[in-house]
Batch of 2 targets.
Target 1
Amino acid sequence: MSRLTKIFLDDFGVFLGRKRNRFVVKKGEEKHEFLADDVESIICTSKAVALSVSALSLAVDRNIQVIFATYSGRPYAVLMPTVMTGSVRARREQFLAYMDERGFILAKSFVKGKIKNQANLLKLIAKNRKQRDPSLAYFLYRSGRLIDEVYERVEDEEGSNIDDKRLDLMNLEAEAARIYWRAIARILPEGLKFNGRETRGARDPFNAMLNFGYQAVLFPEVWKAVCYAGLDPYAGFLHADRPGKPSLVLDLMEEFRQQVVDRSLISLFSKNVIKPEDVLAVGVEAEEGRVLGKRVVQSMLDALLSRLDRAVMFGGRRGSLKSFIYSQSRNVVRFLLRVSSRYEPFILGW
Amino acid sequence: MSRLTKIFLDDFGVFLGRKRNRFVVKKGEEKHEFLADDVESIICTSKAVALSVSALSLAVDRNIQVIFATYSGRPYAVLMPTVMTGSVRARREQFLAYMDERGFILAKSFVKGKIKNQANLLKLIAKNRKQRDPSLAYFLYRSGRLIDEVYERVEDEEGSNIDDKRLDLMNLEAEAARIYWRAIARILPEGLKFNGRETRGARDPFNAMLNFGYQAVLFPEVWKAVCYAGLDPYAGFLHADRPGKPSLVLDLMEEFRQQVVDRSLISLFSKNVIKPEDVLAVGVEAEEGRVLGKRVVQSMLDALLSRLDRAVMFGGRRGSLKSFIYSQSRNVVRFLLRVSSRYEPFILGW
């Protein structure tokens, strides 16, 4: 499988140009060229960057996504081709499904995927720590088993409409999350002072890293997969409608967060690639408005992107983690169009 | 009413930068600044342009649309904020409406708007030519009356589902179009050799001008209005679903084509602003891939943009033509959400 590149434009004074079928990234005397066929997306997290329109049009021609994000990773804009691939039929069914059993089944599947991956990730880490730290391993394994019990209760939920059942599913999800993040806190170095999960705006090291990973890497990938499959990113099932909230992207992200992001970021510490005290930006970087230091961002990107390319087995098929983001989006469509009678969440073993 | 600016980036070697809350357009020594509050959209029809990301982020912050189009005016990409204004509720109803009477009523209204504006534009021109050319005026007036008869037949159409009635509506629309364009051909200078309407790819002067006007000016305006109202641009009623086709934008454009574009372009000839022989690009410009000469494009833009700002009366309210594009999009939403029991197409008198 050929590895596709993401071009990250994350530095002051960078220019993205084009030379025939190549992207040229210039900074001062430095120059890198990328064959368009090898590029999968362009993510720009610095505002001190300039882009040539011919480079943007090359990206559009080749279906290469161009994302603009803040330093903390939150995407604020996407370059959208005016001609969308994917049929409007999928979106028709997506809206209809909200009112029938399909919406409930999808929401339940997303929660099941999330919870089972949480349990399996804890058990996997437990297995790896068994020799070194048996009591931690036992605690992690037990936490995984507790989450399995929550999973069973999700499994037992029945319904014919998501609006009636959202609160129940959300409560079960929150119950599993409490167990999960308490266990993760025990795995992480104490220097991170991780006291549980915080979403937007978090300025403590590990939450800032998680937010960056979810927003700058997982979100654009799922967004693209959802749009390419012809779905409306704003019309989710588990996540309730709220103006401006890309609920379906958030929905589908649930089954990928742990295996793509959490696992990669935890291993940056267990492999000593970065140290707790090096995570947050200081000095000039902090003044630029960055929460995370540039070197940490680079380490995270390396880890997350190679994780996305990692081959895994799911549903009897071998493929990169990334390829399953796309196939799961298409599976949502197949389920919505009733081509397939089931939707199986993406779950990895341990 | 304050006039808002569109920034057109249509020239070789232009750079769009930012200085605090201003856009800065530079070409060599030339430099223009635009206060962001005065800018409504940025349309880039040249590939030899560079943009700073901080300018793009200013545009996103201020809800200023950024459109990338070919020389002939066809938009190929739009910068989309990831947080959309407008509620997903409108899109839910839009998809549901396809299957009930609302879809038929909207499609019929779009055709009614288009046809009545065609008739009224011919009658208006007839009125203006009465002294100078009575026999042409009579022909134009008669053509307008013939279209009125087609309008009555559209009015008589009844249905409860657009799929059943699309062909009937389309046939009536085509009948009116034949009468309309035959009359327009008589108004235009003979040097244009206009033999009827051709859409994409037309290389004869007037069709190329119409395509530019519809695509580069009307389309982005309606696209923006539709998206801002929270509607899915790809899910139309009159225009059938086809992957990648922005059918709802095409639908809503119908009631604005004549009064915004056709009328402005015809008057460029009747006021002798441009001559038939000056329309098509020649020499270097043609080699760059342009169909239309730069000076003609500039004249068209001036005419079309000031036309959009022109105050008119509709529905008992005075506003710019452009403001009615936005209010008609919101009226579609009000009708879809059943806040309003009717949808009145935008029609101007003569």
Target 2
Amino acid sequence: MLYFIGLGLGDAKDITVKGLEIVKQCSRVYLEAYTSILTVGKDALEEYYGRELILADRDMVEQEADELLRGADISDVAFLVVGDPFGATTHSDLVLRAVNAGIQYRVIHNASILNAVGCCGLQLYNFGETVSIVFWTDTWRPESFYDKIKKNRDLGMHTLCLLDIKVKEQSMENLMRGRKVYEPPRYMTVSQASQQLLEIVVNRREQGDELAINEETICVGLARVGAEDQAIRTGTLRQLASSDLGGPLHSMIVTGHLHPLEVDMLQLSAVTSDALKGLRMTDSSTYTS
Amino acid sequence: MLYFIGLGLGDAKDITVKGLEIVKQCSRVYLEAYTSILTVGKDALEEYYGRELILADRDMVEQEADELLRGADISDVAFLVVGDPFGATTHSDLVLRAVNAGIQYRVIHNASILNAVGCCGLQLYNFGETVSIVFWTDTWRPESFYDKIKKNRDLGMHTLCLLDIKVKEQSMENLMRGRKVYEPPRYMTVSQASQQLLEIVVNRREQGDELAINEETICVGLARVGAEDQAIRTGTLRQLASSDLGGPLHSMIVTGHLHPLEVDMLQLSAVTSDALKGLRMTDSSTYTS
């Protein structure tokens, strides 16, 4: 049996009791290490689970899947994923490989950012399509996520924005020389994402577009959701652009139509009492009682 | 401290290790009992947790919140919720009451149907607004969920449909006589939801509307997601209307635009090889390679 086990979002103890029992009994345990991170590292997990973990990066899952699946038809192998195994990233490819190899699989679910964002007080019912905001480079500055946010806003829906993670990146020089030397991991912050959104707002305004969002649009920044030191900050897009929410992982929400109970909940995390006033006054078009 | 603890979706062991530790140490433990159910009952939870659980129905949470919060400023009280505390139903009202009473709160997240549906192979990214399908009566037959499904389909998005739960309902006679006698709980099945959707399709066709879905639209029925005996069935809306997925809870998905990897995953749960053929042939407008 191949077990896909969600680890949840915080630390080693966010695994479910069922998941932990399975980890302890499997012959091999892999830790998916390319789509997300916990606030604790591999060592802390190994110590808590009492098991050696094999790090599985993207190359390994894609190119050495046979090794990963080896023996899973007669013994148990676990594949651990931060969040839920079918949350922000699906592992459909690995599921299909297992099924084709005659290996049964089972999923042990857990919280993922896609449902845990509900803790900020916005109703999950009222979210539209989830978007990813990627790091811009000098030559690559995609704006497609803005257009998806616009579609959601037009329907009154909130938009969860997952922020870019760069792990095992090679510099152009190392890539060209074939050197497997990797840059330090980078995790986009709420501030960086907000700045990119603000730049798009400026561009679109210059182009004369009807704006989906502007500097005063109420957004929610979230950091380390589920961890003891999680941070939630509600404010205007401009305010979030200068907010520091600390270490990774960050994500953010561009709000749509806000219901009164949602406004009351967002006030608990307002950046300043001014931001709070702004919530009721400057964005009143999205607030009905 | 008031702890909101998600129980996940399957049985007693789907609580997280962290959640279980907190349950064992709290002075009182409430079990929210009106928005969802586990496949195991209160007794099984009490035995596994080694704690007495106080059932909290909607009336109690709304009318006796002071009693629920009593002492939570100086000791620990837990409020257990099937799925995630901020999943399908938010408990914002209770959060705000706690904050207003000077009581700190903390959320222990878990899987909810809103993220666990990813197990069927559809990407959570590609879901639009979640809808609720309610039991029709002779005199009340709302169709608003159809219009939301249409909006999502127009954008190519999948729609998760949460199906109605009726607990602690009173018959009209008992209600009028003021007798607190309740009907047996009712949980809408995938078959019932599909039949209601088919009726709407017929109505709208007669009205000459451009149809958002029809009898051949590919849908996914899910039952007891996360439990050992979970069932997933993919087929046309017509096929799901005559499918029996067993005991509660059920939910269903009306698919939008399907990506090739999503089609491959859905084939694993196709009702029949015919349904599978249909997936590639009769709904080809939604499938691009």
